[in-house]
Amino acid sequence: MKLLLLALPLVCFTAANAQKEVNLDELKEYIGDSVKVHGKISGVAYSSSSKQKSMLIYVGENYPRQALTIVIPPAVLNKLHIVPSPADTGNIMLVAGKLERYKGKTRINIKDPLQLDVIDNRQGEPE
Fold it and tell me: Which of 14, 47, 51, 97 is most buried, by the most CB atoms less than 10 A from its CB?
């Protein structure tokens, strides 16, 4: 019985923090939820709206038709071991976080470098 009582909070905590894996075409159904998403990087840019430029990674189609924008503020960008660049276009981006709607588009704001990963998807392709 004691073991059950000890395990219950752990199960509840795990369930509360579980993130659903969703496809790019389903994003609008999960606004406000914490999700895991993967997709092809279509572009990398910097915001023009602030003094400290956040990195913007577009996933899916090219801007302005991107399915998802990943926003990486400077404080997190400085902590990344490998900083995404335009050379990563075509690679696969894995991201986890809370989906938000911003100006009619879906986005995830990165608060921790562990929320994202880039996988080289172009290995073996001719240049």
Answer: 97
Say which CATH number the domain at 108 has: 2.40.50.140
**Omega within 30 of 0 (cis) for the link into 84:** no
pTM: 0.80
Q: List, for residues 48-98, the tens digit of each pLDDT value.
A: 776 778 999 999 999 999 999 999 999 999 999 888 999 999 999 999 999
Report yes or no on 2 lying in a domain: no
What's the one-letter identity of residue 106? T
Reference 26, options 39, 14, 17, 15; nearest CA is 39
What end-to-end distance do the CA atoms of the chain give, in Å? 62
Q: Which residues pair with 58 in a beta bridge?
A: 43, 69
